[in-house]
Amino acid sequence: MDLKNLEFASIDFESTGHREGIGDEPIQIGIAVMKEFEIDKNSFFRSYIKPSNDLQITSRSQSVHRIKNEQLEKSPVLYELWPKINELLGKRVVVAHGAGTEKRFLRSFPMHGFDIWIDTLQLAKKVLPESTDYSLGALIEDINANEEIKAICPGLDWHDALFDAVASLFLLKKLLTKAEGRLSYQDLLKL
Question: CA 36, CA 7: separation in Å to the nearest integer?
C-alpha cells in the first residue's frame, strides 16, 4: 500500500491541566487533514471547549498555552463538537504527537471508531533514533519547518491546538518520506 495515497487527520487538544483527584479536561481542539501528502488548509478546524463543572485552567497550563478561563465561557462543550470531529477524523488515519492525551479525550465518544492511529512521537523514535529530543517543537526545528507552519497558520504558535496538529502533519510527511521503502503500512500500525 502506498502511504501517500492515504488520508490523514491530525488532532491536538490543549487541556485545563491535571488536578489531583479531578484530572483534566480539553479546552481547545485543533484538527487538520492531509490528502496525497498535501495539507488541506480548507480542512482546518479549531475551537475552544468549555470544560464541565466549571473546571478551571491551572496556572501552569495557562502559562503554556495562554488560554484563559474567560475565553471558554461561551464555548461549546466537547460533545457538541462531535459531528465536526467525526466528519474530519472518520475514515482517515488519525495522527497525533504523543497520542495518549488525544485518545483519552476521544474516549468521551466510546463508539467513535477511530481505530487506526499514527503517533508521530513513536514514529520519530523509529525513524530518527539519533535524535536527542523528541518533543514536537524540537523535531519541527530539526526539519526546518517552523516558518512554513507559521505561514499557513498565521497568528498561531506552539501550544495552540491547530498549530500543533498542523505541525504533526508536517512531521509525519517528513518521517514517512525518510522511511520510504523501510516501513510498511503494517509497520506503522504496530507503533
Answer: 7
- Rounded distance between C-alpha atoms, residue 161 and residue 167, angstroms: 10
Distance, in Å, from the CA atom of 46 to the CA atom of 83, rounded to the nearest integer, reads: 14
- State pTM to two decimals: 0.94
Domain boundaries, the chain: 3-190
Which of 96, 65, 32 shows the shortest CA–CA distance to 159?
65
d(CA 162, CA 160): 6
C-alpha cell at 36: 496525497
Residue with cell 466510546: 110
pLDDT tens readout for residues 122-144: 999 999 999 999 999 999 999 99
* CB distance 159 to 14 below 8 Å: yes
Which pLDDT score is estimated for 132? Answer: 95
3-state secondary structure of 39: strand
Report the C-alpha gap between 12 and 65 in whole angstroms. Answer: 12
Q: In what order do the strands lie in the sheet with 93-96?
A: 38-48, 26-35, 7-15, 93-96, 117-119
The CATH superfamily assigned to 3-190 is Ribonuclease H-like superfamily/Ribonuclease H (3.30.420.10)
